[in-house]
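Explain this one:

_____
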Amino acid sequence: MRSFWMGTSLLQALVFASGTLQAQVESGPSAGSKTEVLKAVAATGDAAGKEVDYASERKEKPTLFLFVQADKWDRPVARFLRTLDQELAKSRTDVQIIAVWLTDDVEKAKAYLPKAQESLKLSQTTFAVYRGDKGGPPRWGINADAHLTVVVAQDQKVSASLGFRSVNETDAPSVLKKLKPKK
């Protein structure tokens, strides 16, 4: 009987581990590559309503670029974003989050995102909308299967790219660990 329970526990652990491993997909540019042009319309912040090249604007500064599939936006993704923002506000005010909406309805997103910003009360996050193809900027390699892609960049280079099929606030610490230490 004991071996039955051990076998069942082992099987459950394997099922859980395989499910966890499948939560990530390859998405975003490869580590070490140059940060490519990223033109998007700012929906919040000082540049609201204007098209901004966020990669050029951020240059050497540490940045988390989040590419959000608008049709996959939900509470767990919002909690993940809020957790990132809150943790950065505590110890890494030099890091900015640029959350780029990938959508077929740019105007609807531009109207919605200031409301989301107000509701979430984010201090280090700027919402923007990509005007091009819903797949995102071609040179950024965004995988449509990823509900959310996080690209960690600094010194005009990509440090890491993480694609998530599902994400929540418990994933935030692993993303924050990808940032280079503060200079």
In short: The two ends are 57 Å apart (CA to CA). The first helix runs from residue 2 to 21. The longest strand covers residues 157-164.
